Amino acid sequence: ARHLTGAIRPWRLWLAMAAVTLVLASGPACARGPGDGEDTARLRALPTSAQILFVSNRDTGSSRKEIYAMDGRGQDVTRITRTNDNHFILGIDASRRYIVATRGTEARKRVWLLDLETSQETPLTDAANHAEGRSFSPDGEWIVFWMIPSGESQADIYKVRRDGSGLLLDVPRQLYRDLRHDCEQRQLRCSCA
What we know:
about 30% strand; 4-stranded antiparallel β-sheet; about 10% helix
């Protein structure tokens, strides 16, 4: 996705949240995690050969999906998570240290930050809300996602710092301008600011 950044406005790239498979740009080498045998760690470091991240139920024994990595040839498949949670979509920052993942059930999803260096798992959204997202800001400090707060029916775009602080409603002004322009071009009534 690195080659797309110059061609697409950063906020539009953040909003492209539907993909489940990510192709990783080459980055600094990460230490290889323990062997595949009886590994019980919840998080593993990315293998240095990892170029693709994906979610799968390939060895969970159920419909529950975990996060995996593999090289560009589709080989050297490594299970990254052992969380007993169902993972839906994910993203990784440029340093290859942090993964942001949506996990939970179809009815209730949360956004989590997974630190592959420290094996720390941080929930970024409250369990009472329904949230999905996987996008890091270009500087890696913010995670952008959509969320339906508890008791509401409308989803909005939010951002939160990587450490879980600073949750903000964040709909970029350019998006409003683009929506207003589209409404005017189609001669539609528009309530965009």
